């Protein structure tokens, strides 16, 4: 199936938010997603299908600071998980950061998110720490693994 990456725009937020709600136990609000686009974070979409009728498969939101890229949110539509779309999108950010001097990528991930942990390990991310009590939702509190990848 054909796939392509493009920048997220304000008009995309409703579709992104629908995936956010379906995929996350503690989803970001649509206002947060809109703000990420408005303030100029690196927000990208992976679409599949045809240009006439594209389907949003995944999105990624990153923030840059000096030579560091912090991946804030990487999400794949639940019905499309397991097809490599998260890997394609994350690799796109690694290969084409908005700032050319990026030397480090890092992110947080739930220890209970085994598929994401496998993906990040395969892509060369290593655990460098733990943020205690980072995730809070109706199921309680969960720490976050901090992972990094050097470029």
Keywords:
Aminopeptidase; alpha+beta; 7-stranded mixed sheet; 151 residues; 7 strands
Task: Describe the protein.
- The protein is an alpha+beta fold and 151 residues long.
- The chain has a domain at 3-107: Aminopeptidase.
- Helices cover 26% and strands 42% of the residues.
- It is built from four helices and seven strands.
- Strands 1-2-3-4-5-7-6 form a seven-stranded mixed β-sheet.
- The mean pLDDT is 95.
Task: Please write out the topology.
Blueprint: E1 3-7, H1 13-23, H2 30-38, E2 42-49, E3 54-65, E4 68-76, H3 85-95, E5 104-109, H4 114-122, E6 126-137, E7 140-150
Parallel strand pairs: 4-5
Antiparallel strand pairs: 1-2, 2-3, 3-4, 5-7, 6-7
Overall form:
globular
Biggest β-sheet description: 7 strands, mixed
Going by helix content, strand content and strand pairing, the class is: alpha+beta
Give the end-to-end Cα distance, rounded to a whole number of Å.
29 Å
Alpha carbon gyration radius: 15 Å
Assembly state of the chains shown: single chain
Strand order of the largest sheet: 1-2-3-4-5-7-6
Q: What low-confidence regions span 5 or more consecutive residues with pLDDT below 50?
A: none
Produce a short descriptive summary.
With 151 residues, this protein is α+β, with helices and mostly antiparallel strands. The protein contains 4 helices and 7 strands; from the N terminus they run βααβββαβαββ.
């Amino acid at each position: 199936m054909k796939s392509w990456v493009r920048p997220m725009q304000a008009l995309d937020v409703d579709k992104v938010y629908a995936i956010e709600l379906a995929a996350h136990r503690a989803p970001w609000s649509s206002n947060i997603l809109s703000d990420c686009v408005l303030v100029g974070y690196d927000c990208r979409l992976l679409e599949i299908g045809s240009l006439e009728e594209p389907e949003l498969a995944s999105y990624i939101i990153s923030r840059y600071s000096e030579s560091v890229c912090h991946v804030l949110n990487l999400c794949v539509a639940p019905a499309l998980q397991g097809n490599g779309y998260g890997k394609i999108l994350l690799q796109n950010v690694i290969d084409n950061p908005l700032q050319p001097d990026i030397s480090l990528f890092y992110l947080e991930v739930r220890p209970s998110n085994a598929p994401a942990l496998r993906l990040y390990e395969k892509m060369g991310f290593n655990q460098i720490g733990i943020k205690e009590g980072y995730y809070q939702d109706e199921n309680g509190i969960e720490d976050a693994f901090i992972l990094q990848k050097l470029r």
